[in-house]
Amino acid sequence: MRETIDLLIKNGQIIDPAKGDIQKGTVAVRNGKIIPYIQEIEYDVKDEINAEGYYVSPGWIDSHVHIFKDGTEPGFAADLNLIPMGITSAIDGGSSGVGNWPIFKSHVVDANYLNIFYSVNVSPSGQITESYPENVDPRCYDAEQLKEIMEKDPDHARGLKLRYGAEVVAPFGNDVLDKTIELAETLGCSITLHVTNPPCPMEEIVAKMRPGDIICHAYQGKKSTIVDEQGNVKQAVWDARKRGVSFDSADARINHCYEVIYPAIKQGFKPDIISTDITKNGLFSNMCWGLPVVLSKWLNLGLSLSEVIADCTYHPAKIHQLPWGIGTLDQGANANITIFSVEDRPFHLKNRMGESFDGKNLIIPQVTIINGIVRFKSLYFPF
Predict the structure, then answer these.
(1) Phi/psi of residue 357, each to 5°?
(2) What's the predicted TM-score (pTM) here?
(3) Which of 22, 120, 283, 294 has an alpha carbon 20 to 30 Å from 69's alpha carbon atom?
């Protein structure tokens, strides 16, 4: 009896981000999952994609987005905007707290084609506006409700989110981070820590972070940063990485600084994760645009293509402990796949710090496959 393949992707340059390999090959999908393809077997193929001249990778993950549309001011429509960007999975960075989580879960997580995960904001109201900071008073933390969320939705809940900037925590004293760590210990989860304009030296912050925690906006340039006055990456930052703390670029419009990025990369301090921290106001602007442009920026900054793709597939999936084989093309994994090209096409970026960046090579998504179904195909991609 002939076996059936629902979707066969052939002749592509397949990237294995776990190994750093790029080899020409074939990817087969049946019932929404990756299956082995054996040339000696005759198959009935329902649909076929000829990826000659293109790269094939695990589906891209944007590990820091704000997609609570209609529930928050910065939120935007996830499927509409992210799927054409080659993104198959996204992690919302604390848009909701315990007070508005039910509507976020029903109207965003459960209502999109994308695989959507999230960190729960320690603030009960989440991050609802860019006009003023959320309330992160530890006296308002609701451990019981947070525990209930994580027990109800263990597949999607990824831990806690705290914005640890001076403008956010100033009204609540010096122990906000310590209280958040205590809360995370009680819940048995990780913390995604926003650190821009920090209220204390970066060395003190990273020294408190635990294995599995994530520092986002790692290359921010406001007040204390990951580099010292001589441009050297601080020893406490190296120590934190060695201890198991991960560093996410989460570039956004203002949360990256080339005066930090250039010396850090030169010293080998590359991001563990590349993400966007994109909001409605950053979409399609040349301050951020979206994940393909941010990935392209890091490629032009000197990371290899394998490194860039690992930082939006295998690494974030492993760090955030995502389920279902996300971040891989392993046999049995859910078939989340991105097909893309790398083209000689100049692009120009600027940020809200007044810095500019010019790149020459642009990563362009061509096909987005989510759980075995083609959800986007570029008109430039051959039919």
Answers:
(1) -145, 135
(2) 0.98
(3) 294
The half-sphere exposure of 267 on its side-chain side, counting CA atoms within 13 A, is 17
Tell whether the model's pLDDT for residue 54 goes beyond 90.
yes
Average pLDDT over residues 5-28: 97
* CA nearest to 257, candidates 296, 231, 285: 231
* Residue type for position 141: Y
Q: How confident is the model at residue 173 (pLDDT cuts 50, 70, 90)?
A: confident
- How far is Cα 63 from Cα 44, in angstroms, rounded to an integer? 37
- Rounded to 5 degrees, φ, ψ at 58 are -55, 155
3-state secondary structure of 366: strand
- Residue 1, pLDDT above cutoff 90: no
252: alpha, beta or left, given left = phi > 0 and alpha = psi -120 to 50? Answer: left
Going along the chain from its start, the domains and CATH numbers come out as: 3-57+332-343+359-377 (2.30.40.10), 61-319 (3.20.20.140)
Judge contact between 228 and 234, C-beta under 8 A: yes
Helix (H) or strand (E) holding 184: helix 176-187
Mapped onto helix, strand or coil, the DSSP state of residue 66 is coil
